[in-house]
Amino acid sequence: MAKQDRAAKKEAAKQKRQASKARRKQLFEAFKMQRREDRLLVPLMLAVLLGTAVVAFLLGLVWNLQWFFLPVGVALGALGAVIVFGRRVQANVYNKADGQPGAAGWALENMRGKWQLTQGVAGTSQLDAVHRVVGRPGIVLVGEGSPHRVRNLMNQEKKRIARLVGDTPIYEIVVGNEEDQVPLRKLQSRIMKLPRNINAGQIDSLEKRLEAIGGRSTAMPKGPAPQGARMRNVQRATRRK
Asked: Which member of 55, 60, 206, 228 lies 3.0 to 4.6 Å from 66 by CB, making a disulfide possible if both were Cys?
């Protein structure tokens, strides 16, 4: 039994080292890719790193603890540089995805927390689509494509499910850069800011009821899937650092 425990611990440690190595490689590849497209990336990261270290050193001089404050400043500066890197990668990916069919569905897949996403509950042959998100706010219908066609789709979908969900709030969001639309890069934050109207236990129950009535889903384009996958992986890796 003891040998089995040691072997299991050894294997777990090995897997942990391999995962850590894979994350570092992933971050390095993402860094090289972003640096080729973003000339300000390295200067900004260095500015944050060195600036934070200098500020910490100067603060340390006040109490004659500059050599204690300096390593702390370097560590905080390194963290800030990683955050700058992650934010600029994210902005770059959203800029590339903006306007592509399927981009809204891809962005919704990246949301953190307890959300039930069903892509393409309604759509047209012109690649307009409505996605359904169930979470603490209730139901969120997210449309992408031609504003006129998307509004019609969303109105039809809202009427279709309203009879089933009763008093559960139904929110409507159209992704785009025109008036009364939400830019793709702000889609997640807009949904996250919605009021919490139902508890976590009601989410699964509500989703099951909605699944029971099915949908008129259409084949969804993959949109910016490769960049999306890369962004999710980079975000996970930076959070674990």
From this structure: 60
Query: Can you say whether the dihedral through the CA atoms of 181, 167, 188, 220 is positive or negative?
Result: negative
Q: Encode pLDDT of 100-150 as tens digits.
A: 888 999 999 888 888 999 999 999 999 999 999 999 999 999 999 999 999
The closest of 97, 51, 95 to 74, measured between CA atoms, is 51
Please tell me the pTM assigned to this model: 0.74
Per-residue pLDDT at 37 exceeds 60: yes
Res. 222 pLDDT band, cuts 50 70 90 = very low
What's the 3-state SS for the chain? Answer: CHHHHHHHHHHHHHHHHHHHHHHHHHHHHHHHHHHHHCCCHHHHHHHHHHHHHHHHHHHHHHCCCHHHHHHHHHHHHHHHHHHHHHHHHHHHHHHHHCCCCCHHHHHHHCCCCCCEEEEEEEECCCCCEEEEEEECCEEEEEEECCHHHHHHHHHHHHHHHHHHHCCCCEEEEEECCCCCCECHHHHHHHHHCCCCCCCHHHHHHHHHHHHHCCCCCCCCCCCCHHHHHHHHHHHHHHHHC
Closest CA to 144 of 132, 156, 135: 132
Residue at token pair 């300000």:
40
**What span, in angstroms and rounded, lies between the C-alpha atoms of 141 and 213?**
16
